Known about the structure:
With 174 residues, the chain is an alpha+beta fold. The protein has one domain (12-168). Helices cover 19% and strands 34% of the residues. The strands form two sheets. Strands 2-3-4-5-6 form a five-stranded mixed beta sheet, covered by helices on one side. A two-stranded antiparallel sheet has the order 1-7. It is elongated. 16% of the residues are buried.
Amino acid sequence: MIGLPDLPFSDPVRLNQIPGGVTRTLEPDAAARGRIAKALDLASLDAFVADMNLKPAAEGWRLSGRVKASAVQTCGLTLEPLPVEIDSAFSITLSEAVEPETDEIVITVEDDSPDLIEDGRIDLGQYAVEQLALCLDPFPRKPGAEFVQPEEPAEVSPFAVLKGLHSKTPPEQG
């Protein structure tokens, strides 16, 4: 899960309270949308709804759902507002963290490894914000906006600089 400082939106669920699973529709209020927009560097987040379905699975838990949002990003080239509509389904495998029996730490780099559930709870709000963040263009660009490389200045010879200084000195009076 992406670590966001000071969670902008939170809706924790304790697993021992929902043995059969839970279905929720999360719709943050204006203040929470403002915090989310700030955390994700959005100009605004006008609407955000996350349908979440958490249920037990053979390998732990399965969190699936859909995020829908109306947001405004800022074009990285023109700095103009760039409206964005998001409607994206997701599915995440979760498993409970197991205390290691040894002091040895094993690190694996696998894209399909399940997210770990810590302290017996899952924060649906944090997952909703994470899914929204994954749908945003990290380099938003308005259609037709192109970066034009400025011309590089011609290299100036040190002798040309000296000649320019010499021509600016007043003539000697004799």
